[in-house]
């Protein structure tokens, strides 16, 4: 994650920022990052560990470390926004709110279909965070201000992550587990 604010995440816009990676038939390995992708138009088929996910407009797709991802059936109008996040940031953010049972469940259910309102909300949060990064990622600020801006934008990312997790848990109900914090 290379940026002036030293953030543990970065955005990409698909297909523009994917280069040659986003081609049907490609297989690649995710090593030390995780993230989420919001499909904003079209569709794509993603296979992970022999599980096939057909991702359509208004779907969120999560990717995790150590997964082999195979892409196929990419529509001509396929577009989306992707947020890649360091594994350390994800662990720090979600270990306090997800027990091991839920983490394993999410690992095996990597897709979330959103309604139009939810999708618009997530897109708005992602876009707002991206625009704030672009606005604040400048050279001529003090180290103290750079630190504060970095923490502010990290908190926006945590808020986005918790909004997504809230939507995920609402649509994938599981038995409540008492947390030992």
Brief rundown of the structure:
By secondary structure, the chain is of the alpha+beta class. The protein has helices spanning 87-94, 100-108, 116-136, 143-171, and strands at 9-14, 27-30, 33-41, 43-48, 51-56, 59-63, 67-72, 79-86, 111-113. A hairpin with a 2-residue loop joins strand 4 (43-48) and strand 5.
Backbone structural class: alpha+beta
Radius of gyration: 17 Å
Q: Which sequence of strands runs across the widest sheet? A: 1-8-3-6-9
Mean pLDDT: 86
Give the end-to-end Cα distance, rounded to a whole number of Å.
Answer: 30 Å
Assess the beta-strand content as a share of residues: 25-35%
Q: How would you sum up the global shape? A: globular
**Helical run tally:** 4
Helix content: 25-40%
How would you spell out the order of helices and strands?
EEEEEEEEHHEHH
Number of strands: 9
> How does the major sheet shape up?
5 strands, antiparallel
Q: Low-confidence spans: pLDDT under 50, at least 5 residues?
A: none
């Amino acid at each position: 994650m290379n940026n002036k604010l030293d953030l543990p995440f970065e955005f990409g816009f698909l297909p523009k920022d994917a280069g040659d990676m986003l081609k049907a038939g490609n297989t690649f390995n995710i090593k030390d990052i995780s993230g989420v992708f919001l499909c904003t138009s079209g569709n794509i088929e993603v296979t992970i560990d022999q599980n096939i996910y057909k991702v359509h407009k208004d779907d969120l797709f999560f990717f995790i470390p150590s997964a082999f991802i195979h892409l196929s059936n990419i529509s001509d109008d396929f577009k989306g926004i992707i947020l890649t996040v360091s594994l350390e940031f994800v662990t720090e953010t979600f270990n306090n709110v997800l027990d091991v049972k839920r983490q394993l469940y999410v690992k095996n259910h990597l897709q979330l279909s959103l309604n139009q309102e939810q999708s618009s909300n997530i897109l708005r949060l992602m876009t707002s965070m991206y625009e704030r990064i672009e606005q604040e990622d400048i050279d001529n600020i003090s180290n103290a201000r750079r630190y504060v801006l970095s923490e502010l934008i990290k908190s926006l990312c945590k808020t986005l992550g918790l909004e997504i997790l809230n939507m995920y848990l609402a649509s994938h109900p599981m038995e409540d587990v008492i947390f030992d914090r």
